[in-house]
């Protein structure tokens, strides 16, 4: 049992000791399946606060022959698997935390020598006859042990990308690290001594030099989580169960912390969910473990359409994003799409894989992004916020003429890149226009249009503003009339959140006439039965 080689299970025991632990051991069924195969090279990237280290510690506790973990896993999902005991504590495991290694190594350029020296020293305790004194290369040491004993290793690297992210300008540190990774994992020789390789970090594999070192890895990311989607964050079923156990309003938890759409799963941020269950306070917990300083320079980059896209997403809309151009590093950011893709990997945006759109996932992140935007104010945003507030005031005053004028102004002055051609375009402008409402309302519930009919926005006030602000149901029309819009609101079946809403409700009909290029608005107070 060593620090890097065959660690014990104490790190994972800390997670199990916690008041809230959500069982993610089902992931081990997948890793068991791919042991000693070409699919046994896994890079699982996800944002901070999404349990990367807990997962790495779990895999170490299960596979490491430096401990006995049968009792630890006895009540977890993996224990039901037919091959549970077959692989339990049967392997030589090397577990590295690159972030932790930075300090004892004495800096980024010493990380590779430090890891190699310490790991080889520990390996010599297990295999004293296999390693010559002069062995300095860790890949060579693993190859020598395999040649003499036939033993294979499980390599687990936590924060594998920290040198790629934080030392992007240090060419020597990056080159040494990439060469180290290439020696560990690339080519015929590593297939002889690798039983399983599991890398976890924030960024996917870099699409340049690192790609050549790790292009044999299967990637599971926030863009494409594949089969590992249920193990990246908490699923909706898991959060429902916790909300019931801790007597929390599930719908409130959902508004604040839901939003990461991974494959077919709604995924929640684990740290935030645990915090709200234990503290009972609905607020942003993001800043307690991650700083918005990372995204401030990103959202202030001078790329066409970037600021409009940020405003639109803050208002509750989704925007198209081309994720293919991002090089998975912080140096080669060259477009709006690169910025948005990086923010998806950081967890500041969600991603709809089917529609290829980015969005602000929940109220917690909306607050963090709003703070980031306001920390270095955009000149154009200051005036826009005032115009947006005027629009909200006119809506609450039921002044349809003023609302129509404000929407026209916002479209012409702030969203000129959005050209009207259908009701989708109209809904995009409306999302931007009502940005100021986000201070008082939750992210609007949207029913996307089908054909030329409608695009709904439903604004529900936050609990603290419920007595002062009505719910808003906005119906959009294209080349029709506002009375038809309002009547359709009355005739349609409202969302369940509106049916149960006890405060006032305003019905807002908005139409855009393509021939006159004018907006019309009609606002009525909804009379409940």
List the defining traits of the structure above.
alpha/beta; five-stranded parallel sheet; 529 residues; 43% helix; Rossmann fold; five-stranded mixed sheet
Number of domains: 3
Mean pLDDT: 87
Largest sheet: 5 strands, parallel
Quantity of strands, as a count: 16
What is the architecture of the largest domain at the second tier of CATH? 3-Layer(aba) Sandwich
Query: In CATH, what is the class of the largest domain?
Result: Alpha Beta
Distance between the termini: 71 Å
Shape: elongated
The helicity comes to: 40-55%
- As a whole number of angstroms, the C-alpha radius of gyration is 27 Å
Q: So how many helices? A: 24
In the CATH hierarchy, the third-tier topology of the largest domain is known as Rossmann fold
| Unreliable sequence segments | 448-455
Oligomer: single chain
Class based on secondary structure composition and strand pairing? alpha/beta
Determine the strand fraction and express it as a percent band: 5-15%
| Spatial order of the strands forming the largest sheet | 2-3-4-1-5
Domain AAA-ATPase-like: 18-208
Pfam family, one: PDDEXK_9
InterPro entries: AAA-ATPase-like_dom, P-loop_NTPase, PDDEXK_9
